Amino acid sequence: MLQIMSRLTGAAPRMWGASIVGFGSYTYVNATQKPAQWMRTGFSPRKASMSIYIMCGFDRFEGILARLGKVKTSVSCLYVTSLDKIDRGALEELIAAGWDRMSTLYPDD
Predict the structure, then answer these.
(1) Is residue 109 part of a domain?
(2) Residue 35 DSSP SS3
């Protein structure tokens, strides 16, 4: 994932906390109405499954998700039990599309 995301984003990896590798950043207003920074995309190699963060969510990417294979999603997180069990081309397309969408939503960051 490190090589894939580095290549697709052109950004340097950065640790966000103890277990998340993130790429790029953007500023948003959090629940307490204060500006906060977070990564544009990233991943975390967790025990049960790898978490891949597509921060803009998946609403625009149903077609790509359908090609991925067996995955689970939440609001902005894709859960993958094994990279060998999914379509890597579709995964790369999803990461690139999510990165591009974040660049559109947050152009000044």
Answers:
(1) no
(2) strand
Give how many domains the chain has, as a whole number: 1
- Domain range holding 33? 2-104
pLDDT digits (tens, 9 = 90+) for 27-70: 999 899 999 999 999 999 988 899 999 999 999 999 999 999 99
SS3 32: coil
Q: Angle 42-7-46 (CA atoms, 0-180°, nearest 5)?
A: 30
Going from the C-alpha of 32 to that of each of 13, 28, 35, 67, the distances in angstroms are: 28, 11, 9, 38
Residue 8, class by beta-carbon neighbours within 10 Å (0-12 exposed, 13-18 middle, 19+ buried)? buried
The number of angstroms, rounded, from the C-alpha of 19 to the middle of its chain's C-alpha atoms is 14
Assign 72 a pLDDT band (cuts: 50, 70, 90). very high
Say what the pLDDT of residue 108 is: 79
